[in-house]
Every structure is written in C-alpha cells, then in structure tokens.
C-alpha cells in the first residue's frame, strides 16, 4: 500500500469511527474525558466570556472571528438558546454567531427569539453542519421559519456528502450565505465518498450560483483551488480557519488572492469530539497538540 493509500485508509477508518455510537459513548464517559482533557483545553474556550475574549484577540490581529456554543445531548433546547443569546450579547468583533438547529430542538419559538436578538444586534446566524440524518429535518425547519425571520442566515455544506452539490441550489434559492467544509460524518448513501473531490464539486456549483461563500479548512491544495475558482468567478468569499490548528501557509494562500480570513472559536464540552475527529483523520495533529501543551501561556 502506498503512502497516499495508507493516509486515505486511516482517514476513512477515522470517519467511520467518529460516526459510530461507540465513539460518542466513549467520548462522553468521565474516564476518557479526564484522559483527553489536555486536548480539549488546547482547542476550546471554556465559556462564552473566554470565547469572546479570543475573538477580540483575533480581531486585534486583523482577523474577523465567529464563535458559538457546541452543545451536548444533555443540554435542553432552552439552555442551548441561552448560550446562543449570551454569544450575541458579547459578540464584539464578530458579525455572526454559529449555531445548530438540532440544539434548539427544532422549536419555532426558540428560533424566533434567537433571530430577533441577532437582528437587533445586526448579526447573522450561521448554522453548522450536523449528522447527515438531521439535514432533511433541519432544511424543512428553515423553510418554515425563514419567511418571517428578521435575521440573515448562513448554512454549511459538507463536501463529504454527495447531496451537498444539490443543496447548493436549495441554499441559493433562499439567499443563504454558505460555508463549505469537508465534513465530519460520512453520509450513509456514500460512506466512501472522497471529501476532497466532493468539496471542489460543491465549490464548482457555488461558482455558478454566485452566492457568498466561506471556504473552511486547512487542506492547502483544496483551499487554494477553491478560493482561486471562486475569485475567478467573481464570487465574494473568504477563508475560514479553526482556532488551534496551524494556519500560516493557509493565510499566505488567502493573502496572495487578496482575501480576508476568519477564525472559528468553539466553546462547550462537545468540542472534544471535534478535536478528536481531527486527530483521527490527521494523526500529525498530535504533534501540533503536543507542541501546544508544552508551550507556556497557551
């Protein structure tokens, strides 16, 4: 097996593990959480105040930032909304917050409260990607609430899912700003789909629709191709990076194209699952984590 084939096999194994019930149960267990706490602290803000402080620090360095609460299954929809409202209250230096529709329990009342608060502060609400079995319900929910919503809305499309190419048209018809990601969870209809190929297919579809796009990720060849294509098509776009991962080379790509960069700051206990996802798909991330843990003042 060649090195590229081995890397692909590792990433596919990691994707399947992340989507399994066993993985989610293990991550939620107290012994595992204690063991992996250093990873979590290296990459997650502890609360909304520390997330806001991080966003302000990034603003002072010339970056736009966004942040949002990553809920757990034990959180009630009302508790999740309260965290989102806290984000809105301290969103200085940000023009939108990130949220998750399932976290709101698909409640039209809670969404209305969130949309009103965001609109009052002139903020957009961007909905992150969730597990593939939530997509249909989340899109149907948005179709019910968008017409009367005062807030601007964003939507995330994972390249790993073949349906995302079709969903570009759905987002464009509703005037949604789009963030493109590789995607954490494999889609059951195409568990072996290549997320890199899918990512660029989504970008190609977005170039035709000409709606505003955030290119999210740290895969240099992919973001370079994506940003170049969008820029050539005259599509408004920016690079979005995840707090905690190296980004010097990625920033160079954006700057060569004259584009802005944004940093995503997540907070909440569920962030550990996402940090582990990066480790499982990209084992070299362990070296970055080790460096972060050894570096004073991190």
SSE map:
Blueprint: H1 3-18, H2 21-28, H3 30-35, H4 37-43, H5 48-60, E1 64-69, H6 77-89, E2 96-99, H7 108-120, E3 124-127, H8 135-145, E4 153-158, H9 163-173, E5 177-181, H10 195-209, E6 213-216, H11 220-232, E7 237-242, H12 248-256, E8 261-267, H13 271-281, H14 285-294
Parallel strand pairs: 1-8, 2-3, 3-4, 4-5, 5-6, 6-7, 7-8
Helix pairs in contact: 1-13, 4-13, 6-7, 9-10, 10-11, 11-12
Report on this model:
This protein is α/β, with parallel strands linked by helices. It has one domain (3-294): TIM Barrel (Alpha-Beta Barrel). 52% of the residues lie in helices and 14% in strands. It contains 14 helices and 8 strands. An 8-stranded parallel sheet has the order 1-8-7-6-5-4-3-2. Helix 4 (37-43) crosses helix 13 (271-281), helix 6 runs parallel beside helix 7 and helix 10 packs parallel to helix 11. The longest helix has 16 residues, at 3-18. Residues 288-298 have low confidence and may be disordered.
Give the termini distance in whole angstroms: 38 Å
Number of structural units classed as domains: 1
> What is the CA-atom radius of gyration, in angstroms?
18 Å
What share of residues is helical?
Answer: 40-55%
Tell me, what's the shape? globular
């Amino acid at each position: 097996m060649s090195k590229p084939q081995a890397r692909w096999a590792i990433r596919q194994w990691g994707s399947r593990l992340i989507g399994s019930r066993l993985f989610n149960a293990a991550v939620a267990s107290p012994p595992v959480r204690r063991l992996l706490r250093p990873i979590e602290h290296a990459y997650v803000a502890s609360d909304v105040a520390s997330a806001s402080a991080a966003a302000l620090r990034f603003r002072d360095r010339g970056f736009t930032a966004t942040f949002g609460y990553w809920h757990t299954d034990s959180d009630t929809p009302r508790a999740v909304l309260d965290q989102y409202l806290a984000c809105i209250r301290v969103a200085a230096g940000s023009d939108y917050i990130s949220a998750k529709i399932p976290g709101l329990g698909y409640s039209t009342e809670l969404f209305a409260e969130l949309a009103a608060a965001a609109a009052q502060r002139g903020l957009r609400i961007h909905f992150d990607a969730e597990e593939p079995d939530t997509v249909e319900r989340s899109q149907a929910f948005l179709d019910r609430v968008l017409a009367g919503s005062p807030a601007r809305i964003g939507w995330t499309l994972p390249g790993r899912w073949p349906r995302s190419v079709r969903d570009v048209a759905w987002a464009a018809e509703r005037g949604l700003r789009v963030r493109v990601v590789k995607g954490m969870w494999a889609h059951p209809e195409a568990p072996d789909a290549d997320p890199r190929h899918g990512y660029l297919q989504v970008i190609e579809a977005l170039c035709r629709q000409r709606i505003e796009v955030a290119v999210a990720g740290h895969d240099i060849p992919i973001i370079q191709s994506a940003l170049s294509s969008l820029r050539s098509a005259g599509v408004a776009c920016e690079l979005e990076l995840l707090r905690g991962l190296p980004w010097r080379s990625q920033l160079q790509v954006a700057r060569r194209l004259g584009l802005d960069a944004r940093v995503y700051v997540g907070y909440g206990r569920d962030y550990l699952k996402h940090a582990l996802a990066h480790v499982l798909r990209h084992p070299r991330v362990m070296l970055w984590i080790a460096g972060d843990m050894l570096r004073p003042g991190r």
